[in-house]
Amino acid sequence: MSLEENRRIVREILNESDPADAPTAHYALYHPPERTVLDVSRDHQSKRTGFVARCQTGLDLFRPLVTMRCYSPRMAEYLTARVLAKGRHYIFFARRDQLTLARHIMQFHQERILHIYQLDPARFRPVINVLVQQNNAPDGSPRFEVHSGGLQAVAGVNWQSNRFAELFVHTEEEAQRRGWGRSVLAACTEQILKAKQMPLYLVEPDNVASLELARNVGYVDTGARQVYAEVMYMGADE
Question: Are residues 91 and 145 located together in one domain of the fold?
């Protein structure tokens, strides 16, 4: 089947309104077609359909990103064998409930569990800071920056779909505790809201400064967890 046909099937599997599905949905459904390979399969015992997607991204030019939604080891083995190359390295990016299935066929390195935070609009208050400047990214997505004294803070968008956008913040260490990170994140958050998308923020639980920043702007923990890991695809045992 074509990519368009497979994406139609995947739309019936994922809940695009759920922040827990949002990162997976972006890569499976909205990543540029020329850089996406997507395959689907049906488990006839459980009567459930799953998928594996391989996406070439700007995150890593040499390691494609892999996301999946499978319901049995057999389904995961079958689909990854069709989409991935044995012995090749990838970035694994999927819901935490996919981790057990992936461990049987992938060797994991640098594994991180990310908490998915979503903005609570009732808690959000814009921040006025005359130092903040908008300089959109090359793809047109919003990007807000503060530059002063050779230091900078930047907030932008990692990815966006019809309903959600994942934001990031980077503040140089010497510029921390000046309120710059909060200023640029608030500005980017406000811009995403104006575009009628819901801002998301993915963060590791031990990154205290990043968690505090997100909460101060109005983001709350959804309870959803996403895995980000460097992996080598080993394939199923012979």
Answer: no
